[in-house]
Write a sequence for this structure.
């Protein structure tokens, strides 16, 4: 049996020796370009362990497999012994893709072993190097020899990692309110810097204000859920913290939603009261606000309490332990699986769906994100501009800074490029997460090439990042914009690109890729990815081929609000179907090609609508406009069976036969099959979009069917 651990240090090596029957039963396989660390090598020499050193680039695949087979025939397990490459923090494995793919199609069966290294504190809860508090080895079920063995080994590691993380010491019996109180009291001088009025609120005062607000919430509602209609800022932070401390489910509302969407969210969550503030209600006049009697104006409520009460709570927090303070303030200690918050999906294809988030899910998400970031508490500052109704805003802009002890700057408008650039420079911001539109606004407003010199992480979430955005950031500012795969059902991101680690001039250690053009990046720790066929939840035998993307993990939802799993085709056991089409590369990077609904199956080929739209812009010699769509492709039922493509266009007032000739010749001139050419061009006045800027596909589809007189159920 070929045993493939994802990483090995000396304690792991000793555990493997014990588990596999002692050193006499093991032959260690070492690749010369990825030599193990000094402690491991010393142990090999002193124990006179059996094994062999190989060189992929020099000896070739057949020679190495022959050496491995010889050791197996002698009754030994061949254990691949990885060294320490350059990689992103908390990566899945230390083994480069070329070494792992060596076994594809070989006669060797494999047993993957996932080695997890954990600490009992938040900052390095998931780690990949010593020191650590806990070492956990998971021996995965053996895998048969054959096609794409390397990809199947990676899939086994991901599943084992999610199972291990469920048992993490911090997640076994987590009390999120207590962890927040302890973190805020441990870092009382941490700061929230409000970018609107340049005021500063220390974390001790935020805790005191939130404790005061718990009494307000209990006084104003008998409901277990509370709506929050607030942007990033002091009051938004206090409101969400107060709900957690009071044991009330925080339901952050999308204040750009249509009246119909808002009414649907209120009904789904059963909301009767909403927290907001006076200034925001005056600014957001287009929103369909509930009656004033149902609004709790947090600014007014805290002002009525008076500054003396805030000072009294602040003084009390200095004199009491976290447990004493919680008892004195009657702070809730809910169960790990109790509902803590609700966010809603974007409603891309249907009405928004409520996603219940437990205390365990929130903490697991914050731990997962923190483990992937190389940031220093008390030194690095985060910029929070995304609302808490988004996963990135709730985790990255609220929980991460409070639990991790990071100062944060807040601003309520993600597209206020000029102001955001000023805040980034003034406060030497190290991390900002924004939408592609917000990031582009920042790039346009930047005055000097060094505007983003201190910015280590510029994350793009919430929508597909245009390649032109990443290129503009790189060319003009030397800034790497890192794309994240964001969905309401997986907190905070399912996957994210990361900066490449700095090369070490004193070593020749290989570099494991952390980002690549067109890729989303690697899944975050604790997120397992499965690629299946378009119409089945069973794993695809070829994960590197496009298919449906499924997710699993402690921070991935397992149900929708008010919908049983039996009624939801997107839930299958612990797996959640994203509805996106994508694939995993051999080196563990995820690529998302688009929504399943935005693909048309014709025979053996899948036609991606987004890519086809890009080609149509070129064919009709028109530049895409970020602010206004000029065309869209939808797929409608064909009268002869199957599906056919339709182009909705604001470029055409009338359609002539020459337009169809232009289409067909344009497609074939690009060396694509004629089936890519839309069968119909429908002139429209505008292309419907959703509040988040994405195509309103359902409206476009129904409109196309109506214009073509096609009946749909």
């Amino acid at each position: 049996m070929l045993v493939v651990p994802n990483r090995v240090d000396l304690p792991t090596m000793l555990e493997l020796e014990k588990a596999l029957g002692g050193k006499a039963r093991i032959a260690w396989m070492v690749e010369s370009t990825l030599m193990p660390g000094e402690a491991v090598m010393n142990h090999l020499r002193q124990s006179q362990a059996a094994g062999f050193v190989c060189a992929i680039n020099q000896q070739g695949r057949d020679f190495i497999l022959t050496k491995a087979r010889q050791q197996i025939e002698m009754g030994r397990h061949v254990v691949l012994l990885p060294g320490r490459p350059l990689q992103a923090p908390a990566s899945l494995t230390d083994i480069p893709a070329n070494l792992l793919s060596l076994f594809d199609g070989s006669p060797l069966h494999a047993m993957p072993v996932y080695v997890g290294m954990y600490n009992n504190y938040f900052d390095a809860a998931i780690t990949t190097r010593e020191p650590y508090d806990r070492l956990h080895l998971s021996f995965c079920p053996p895998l048969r020899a054959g096609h794409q063995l390397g990809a199947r080994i990676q899939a086994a590691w991901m599943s084992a990692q999610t199972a291990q993380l469920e048992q993490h010491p911090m997640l076994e019996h987590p009390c999120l309110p207590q962890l927040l109180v302890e973190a805020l009291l441990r870092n009382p001088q941490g700061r929230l810097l409000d970018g609107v009025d340049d005021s500063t609120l220390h974390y001790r005062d935020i805790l005191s204000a939130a404790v005061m607000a718990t009494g307000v919430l209990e006084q104003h509602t008998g409901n277990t859920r509370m709506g929050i209609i607030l942007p990033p800022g002091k009051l938004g932070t206090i409101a969400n913290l107060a709900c957690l401390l009071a044991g009330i489910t925080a339901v952050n509302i999308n204040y750009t939603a249509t009246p119909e969407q808002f009414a649907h969210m209120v009904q789904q969550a059963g909301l009767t009261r909403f927290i907001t503030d006076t200034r925001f209600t005056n600014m957001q006049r287009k929103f369909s606000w509930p009656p004033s009697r149902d609004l709790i104006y947090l600014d007014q409520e805290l002002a009525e309490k008076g500054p003396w009460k805030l000072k009294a709570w602040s003084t009390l927090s200095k004199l009491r332990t976290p447990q004493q303070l919680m008892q004195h303030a009657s702070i809730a200690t809910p169960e790990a699986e109790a509902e803590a918050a609700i966010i809603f999906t974007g409603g891309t294809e249907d009405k928004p769906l409520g996603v219940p988030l437990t205390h365990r899910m929130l903490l697991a998400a914050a731990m997962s994100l923190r483990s992937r970031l190389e940031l220093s508490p008390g030194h690095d500052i985060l910029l929070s501009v995304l609302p808490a109704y988004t996963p990135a805003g709730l985790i990255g802009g609220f929980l991460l800074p409070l639990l991790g002890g990071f100062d944060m700057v807040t601003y309520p408008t993600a597209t206020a490029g000029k102001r955001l650039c000023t805040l980034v420079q003034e406060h030497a911001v190290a991390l900002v997460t924004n939408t592609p539109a917000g990031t582009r606004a920042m790039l346009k407003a930047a005055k000097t090439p060094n505007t983003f010199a201190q910015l280590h992480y510029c994350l793009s979430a919430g929508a597909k990042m245009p390649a032109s955005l990443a290129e503009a950031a790189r060319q003009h500012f030397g800034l790497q914009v890192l794309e994240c795969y964001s969905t309401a059902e997986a907190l905070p991101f399912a996957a994210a690109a990361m900066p490449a680690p700095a090369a070490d001039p004193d070593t020749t250690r290989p570099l494991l890729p952390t980002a690549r053009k067109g890729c989303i990046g690697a899944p975050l720790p604790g997120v397992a990815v499965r690629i299946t066929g378009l119409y089945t939840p069973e794993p695809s035998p070829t994960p590197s081929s496009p298919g449906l993307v499924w997710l699993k993990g402690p921070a991935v939802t397992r149900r929708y609000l008010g919908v049983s799993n039996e009624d939801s085709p997107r839930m299958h056991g612990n797996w959640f179907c994203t509805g996106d089409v994508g694939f995993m590369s051999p080196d563990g990077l995820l690529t998302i090609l688009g929504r399943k609904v935005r693909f048309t199956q014709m025979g053996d080929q899948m036609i991606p609508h987004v890519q086809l739209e890009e080609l149509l812009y070129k064919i009709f010699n028109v530049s895409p406009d970020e602010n206004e769509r000029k065309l869209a492709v939808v797929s409608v039922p064909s009268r002869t069976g199957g599906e056919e493509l339709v182009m909705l266009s604001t470029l055409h007032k009338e359609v002539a036969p020459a337009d169809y000739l232009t289409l067909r010749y344009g497609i074939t001139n690009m060396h694509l099959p004629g089936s890519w050419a839309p069968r119909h061009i429908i002139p429209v006045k505008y292309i419907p979009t959703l509040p988040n800027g994405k195509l309103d596909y359902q409206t476009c589809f129904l409109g196309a069917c109506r214009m073509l007189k096609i009946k749909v159920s």
